[in-house]
Amino acid sequence: MIDLNKTLRPLVKLHVIAAAAVLLAVSVAPASAQRLVARVNGANITSFDVNQRIKLEALISNARLSQKQALDTVIDDKLKVLEGRRMGYKITDNDIDTELTRIARNNNQTKDQLEDGLRQRGVDPIALRDKLAAELVWGALVPYRARSLSPSNETINAEIAARVAKGEARVHDYGLNQVIFVVPRANPALAGQRRRDAEAARKRFNGCESGLEMLRQMRDVAVKPPVYRSSTDLPKPMADLLAKTPVGHLTQPYSSDQGIEMIAVCDRKERTDEGAIRKEVEADLSKKRSGNLADSILKELRAKATIKRF
Length: 310
Prior knowledge:
Elements: E1 36-40, E2 43-46, H1 47-61, H2 67-86, H3 93-106, H4 111-120, H5 125-147, H6 153-165, E3 170-182, H7 191-204, H8 208-216, E4 221-223, E5 227-230, H9 236-243, E6 249-250, E7 254-255, E8 259-272, H10 274-290, H11 293-304, E9 307-309
Antiparallel strand pairs: 1-2, 1-9, 3-4, 3-5, 3-8, 6-8, 7-8
C-alpha cells in the first residue's frame, strides 16, 4: 500500500494521495517506444512521461487521466521545477530520497521495496521522483509569493477606518455577576427543578442592586463578586448572550458543571476599539489578496512559458 499523503510536506494544499489496490501489470516502455509530445521552455516531454503519469495517478490516487490531462499535469510540473530553479530553489536527489524513504517507512517497506513495487505495477520510480520534486518546489514557492502579498499598513488602516464608519469596531465593556443555582453532584436529577427555580428568579429579578440581594437570600444559590470583561475577551457564544441581555437583567439559564448558571449584566459601556479588529482585518485582506494563489501563479507561468505540443 502506497500512502504519499502522510509524508509529503508541501505548504500548499495538494491532491489527497491515498493507496490504491490497482495492479497495472504493464512493463516499462523501452526508449525506442518514446516520442516527443511537448517541449516546455526547452525541456522535452515524451509519450513515455505522459503514460507514466497516467499509471502513477491511477495507482496512488485512483484517478483515470486522459492523455491530455496527463500531459497538462506533466507540463505544469515542468513549469514548477523550472520556476523553482529560476528562483534559486533546487530539490536535490537527497531531498527526494528522503521523501521516498518516509513514504516507504509509512508503508512498512524500505525505499528499495517501494521502488520495486512501483516497477511491478509498470511505473518507473523516476515518474514518482519527478512528481515529488515538483510538489516540494511548489511547497516552497507559493508561501514565498504569498508573503509578498501581505497588505500594507495603509491598506489595513483604510479598511479599519471603513469598518469603524460602519460601526463594526464597537466593543462592549461589561460589569457582570455570576449566579449559580447549585445542583448537588450526588443528586443530578434535581437539575430540572433547579432550572425552573432559576427561571422563576429571573422573572422576579428587578435590577442588580435589589435583585442580587434577593438571590443571596435564596437557598443553594451562589452570587459571585462582580467582574469586568470586554466583549473582545469573551468566547463568541457568551459575547452574543450578553449582547442580547439588557442591563439590569439576567441572561437565560444555562447548564454548567456547578449547576444552573445565569449572568447578571449590571453595567455595559460601548466604545470604539480599532485594535480589536486589526487582526481580523489583516487576516481578511490577506485571504482576499492571496485567494487561489497557487492557481494564479501557475496560470502566470503558463502564459509566460514557451510551450510547444507535437
